Amino acid sequence: MVLKKYSNAVSILILIAGIYFSFYTLLPNLGAETNVTETEFSTEKALAHLKNISKKPHYTGSKEHAVVRNYIVEEFEKLGLKVEIQEQLAINSRRTATATKNILTRIKGSESGKALLLLTHYDSSPHSSFGASDAGSGVVVILEGVRAFLAENKVPKNDIIICISDAEELGLLGANAFVNYHPWAKDVGLVLNFEARGSGGPSYMLVETNGGNKKLIEAFKKANTPYPVANSLMYSVYKMLPNDTDLTVFRENKNIDGFNFAFIDDFFDYHTAQDIFNRLDLNTLQHQASYLMAGLNYFSNSDLENLKAEEDFVYFNFPYFGIVFYPFSWVLPMVLICTLLFLVLLGAGFSNKKLTIIGVLKGLIPFVGSLLITSLGAFYGWKFLLKIHPNYTNILHGFTYNGYYYIAAFVALTLAICFWFYKGFFKKRTAQDLLIVPIFSWILINFGIAFYLPGAAFFIIPVFILLLILAILLFGKQQNNLILFSIAVLPILIIFSPLIKMFPVGLGLKMLVISTVFTVLLFGLLIPIFQQYKNQKKAYYLFLLIGFMALISASVNSGYSEERKEPNSIVYVYDTTINEAYWGSYNTKIDSFTTQFLGDNPIKGNYKENSSASKYNTKINLHKQAEIVPLKQPTITIVSDTIINSNRRVCLSIYSNRNANKIELRTPSSMEFMQFKVNEVPLKKATTKDVLKLKPGTVLSYYRTSENEIIDLELVVSENQQLEFDIFESKYDLLTNPLFKIEPRPSTMMPMPFVLNDATIIKSNIKL
């Protein structure tokens, strides 16, 4: 009787506990270390390494880049390992090139099978990121993990190759150099790659394979990682997105499989000056370490020759069970079984008059109404917020500092709308009437998943649970099942609650609509519980209050501070072709820093249509003509220009007289190359069938790494091909160049990431 009396309160506590548990179990919460042995991973030692390698930005070619490389080499040598520096010019498919310097070492195994590769990168993003999380965290996890592994004095069965790659941030160039040019690449059987796309939160495991994931998932399960966070929905979505890592090069070029481990929370720190030592979440670092130690111990002693498979698995993580999986071949049969059970229950419900046609049809109103209003509200609501806070558009990540408040606000308001729609139906309709439409909707979704996105097939689990609840409602006695139902839906909350947060964090706040749709779908499944609550109207007011409080909190925290810096940008461009100079900014509005360059009334838009490219094709939004400053122009030499058998061969040499960081070639018209070589490294072979066709835009982006570096280009085209290039020579010296008098940024500002920034640019043109 007492339990029945307080069943509402107990049910609410169960649901809250389930949601809390779903997030709590994603990460280790180990706290301070005590009594760590020499053979155990020490977070304290890893943090000491991280502090040393993230003191300054260390992008490829910078002085600090060499300092960090030397530090890593010395630490591996202290462990008794022989270290090799692979120096190799690498060019990727996007025609980005640089002279890479990979750090390589190898632990010899007792057998001659395939080797396990531990992979991460040591360069930070140009030009202001300190690279603590991305990917200093990966470097120190490998350094400390290997130390602990070697301290056991056990010889592994497989060789363990360690590659701390260079120039990942420029386009996976270090991995490209290793995979395509180093003899060890052919020995690799499996890769464990450690990455970051933020500075905190759980680390997600993502499989990279050209075939099926069956054997990889089975092996990952056997590795027994203590906190696995992974699901096949992410696996399917990841394969559709252009978010490549170093591991992608291994898969695409050599068909080598592997696991990515990457965390994405606090995305606003990614590639910025805020990617620093003290912003990295300690639990996140421990999570990465848990993957490494489990994977290193298992895969260094398991068969890596037999990990290929044609079959895919559906998989997801669940507390204490680890990774749960089953074959893709089960997906459609499971949907069909659910459909059949649903139809049987539907027929039985109408037969015993526990279901009514009018009740089921009326159940459409709150479900569809909630879905439409909340999804439209999220879509247009975010656009409205961008109008109110135009400064959000300058955060190119798409996830603002107050983004978590917005997730909470839109989810809370969605729940308020759901309760508002349903409050008039709870008393008038039975739970089984209201449950039919949500179950039917989930079955339809699962049919779509079965044919178009089978990685999300674990979405069938809620359907099975709700069919069980529906059966109890139709055939059970009329009694209070509130606590029973609350316990029954716990697996749904544990599996799916984190997804509501994950999508807008990982893909940007423009994806808030996914969170709201997901919330409505989950709400529909909880109808049998909410229908039994007393005073549902109070829930509507509660969530409405929470939603508005979260919106107010987001508004209050929409400004910038030393801990939440405002990103801005400025470049100086000297166009030698017209003898004019410009200030340019990617920001949409001026601020106290950019005003000194752009004045109070800058011109909107770009200074020229054909200008230097940026990662996300972000355009210069503001510009103003500037005084010409005597920058040393590059020396561009036509070494030879000959025609042989109707083919024109041009050799071009570019030398920077001011030690620039980047040289970019862009063309205003389409071109076709039969051969394209950069410093003797071919991009395309000279055959009549293998023609490189390029649209107007970037032909080559070359990042220089040494003071006397010369770029030699060898181009073979047809004799009728018009050759014209705009050459952009960029150097990250605007704030330190004595030719400019610049007031530095306030402590509340930082350079905008993903664009060429704080740079002086010389634009030249050459026509052949």
Which structural traits does this protein have?
single chain; 768 residues; alpha+beta; 15-stranded mixed beta sheet; 26 strands
SSE topology sketch:
Elements: H1 2-5, H2 7-24, H3 43-53, H4 63-78, E1 83-91, E2 96-107, E3 115-121, H5 132-151, E4 160-165, H6 173-181, E5 188-196, E6 200-208, H7 214-223, H8 232-240, H9 246-254, E7 258-265, H10 282-299, E8 313-318, E9 322-327, H11 331-351, H12 357-362, H13 364-388, H14 403-426, H15 431-452, H16 460-475, H17 482-488, H18 490-507, H19 512-525, H20 527-530, H21 536-556, E10 566-568, E11 571-575, E12 580-585, H22 595-598, E13 603-604, E14 622-626, E15 635-644, E16 647-655, E17 662-667, E18 671-673, E19 675-678, E20 681-684, E21 692-694, E22 697-703, E23 710-718, E24 724-731, E25 749-751, E26 759-767
Parallel strand pairs: 2-22, 3-4, 3-5, 5-7, 10-25, 11-26
Antiparallel strand pairs: 1-2, 2-4, 6-7, 8-9, 11-12, 12-14, 13-14, 15-16, 16-23, 17-22, 17-24, 18-21, 19-20, 19-23, 24-26
